[in-house]
Design a protein that fits this description.
This is Transcriptional regulator. It comes from Marseilla massiliensis. The chain has 350 residues and is an alpha+beta fold. It folds into two domains: 192 residues, no CATH class; 128 residues. The strands form three sheets. Strands 8-12-11-10-9-13 form a six-stranded antiparallel sheet, with helices on both faces. A hairpin with a 2-residue loop joins strand 10 and strand 11.
């Protein structure tokens, strides 16, 4: 399946409370400075989009993403607008007030839920405004058909450091010969094209920045040296779903290093690296789950599964010294007892 969801230009169309209906969509000022109220969104039947959008527009500000297509009819080219995603309406305002309004005026209609947090999807205004402005200027926003982590394999995690989208985070992917930033907005995956290479920082710098922000003000970080220090520096308190993905990517880099060490015959260091990685990762997952963070940690949990699988392969290898074979078995049994809720990630302990 190709990565792109559409190859046609798109543009944004907003609807503001008390807007002059005589103006064309292009003439309306859809980005006035109206404070920092967050945005939500909902999906309705395509036949009800106009009615519900007008109804919401009486009390809230709405936004509909539309796509311009060109059709050839009777030897003439006809321009036509349609919704990029059928039935999708963005609404600005307090999520509870919006839902109460829907309950009173459109029974059976509900705001969309973010699959990661299991709560109403909310898009900060500082994210939504650049999203709308970029669409007006560039007309190259695509809604992608898969979750964000689908695009992580083989693509660098980057953070934009300049321009209109400064602070946006995602994956840099070439789609239809265009370099795009694939990111998540309110739980939806979108691709934004026309991004300069000079505007990015890579995943290592991103993680270093996040950890630096996490440890700001701490005199003694308590971070150990050696292998434990290298693994410990992969972790930080997640502030968004992309943070979780970044941590998982960093841990997988360490797993790749362990494989390299094993192939070189450095079995002792390869085993130590895997055991430390598994222990620290399981401890982090337990800590994040215990703090009831809303972010989905399945990407990091998958690292536990893969790390345990790699240890299993090491156990089955005839090259592994017997003392390290015993060390792996004892370590896995100890971790299974210490983290019983995560024991499934380790498989069956021998």
């Amino acid at each position: 399946m190709p990565l792109y969801s559409t190859d046609i230009h798109s543009k944004a169309w907003g609807n503001k409370h008390n807007a002059d209906k005589k103006q064309t969509p292009a003439e309306r000022n859809i980005l006035p400075d109206e404070g920092s109220a967050a945005w939500c969104y909902l999906f309705v039947h395509h036949a009800k989009v106009g009615m519900i959008n007008d109804l919401l527009g009486k009390q809230f500000r709405t936004f509909i993403h539309k796509t311009t297509i060109y059709k050839k009819e009777n030897k003439r080219i006809r321009k036509q607008e349609r919704q990029t995603i059928s039935g999708l309406i963005f609404v600005q305002g307090d999520k509870d007030e919006i839902q109460d309004f829907l309950n009173s005026n459109c029974q059976g209609t509900y705001l969309a839920t973010d699959c990661s947090t299991k709560t109403t999807a909310v898009i900060p205004d500082k994210v939504m405004r650049p999203f709308m402005q970029l669409d007006l200027k560039c007309g190259r926003i695509r809604f992608m058909p898969h979750p964000l982590d689908y695009y992580s394999e083989g693509h660098p995690l980057v953070r934009i450091t300049s321009g209109l989208l400064e602070g946006f985070e995602g994956y840099r992917i070439r789609i239809s010969r265009n370099k795009c930033l694939v990111t998540s907005i309110g739980g939806m995956t979108v691709a934004i094209s026309g991004i300069s290479n000079d505007s990015f920082e890579n995943v290592d710098e991103y993680i270093t920045l996040r950890r630096g922000q996490q440890m700001a003000g701490n005199v003694d970080s308590g971070c150990p040296n050696g292998l434990r220090g290298e693994i410990a520096r992969c972790f930080f308190r997640p502030q968004c779903q992309l943070d979780v993905v970044a941590i998982a990517r960093s841990l997988r880099q360490k797993m790749a290093l362990s494989r390299v060490l094993w192939d070189k015959g450095d079995y002792a260091e390869a085993v130590d690296l895997q055991l430390i990685l598994l222990e620290n990762t399981m401890s982090w997952v337990k800590g994040v789950a215990g703090s009831m963070t809303p972010y989905n940690v399945k990407d990091v949990y998958a690292v536990c599964t893969d790390a345990s699988g790699l240890l299993e392969q090491m156990l089955e290898s005839e090259c592994l010294p017997e003392d390290y074979r015993t060390k792996i078995r004892k370590a896995r049994q100890s971790l299974a007892a210490k983290y019983p809720m995560l024991a499934a990630a380790m498989g069956k302990c021998p």
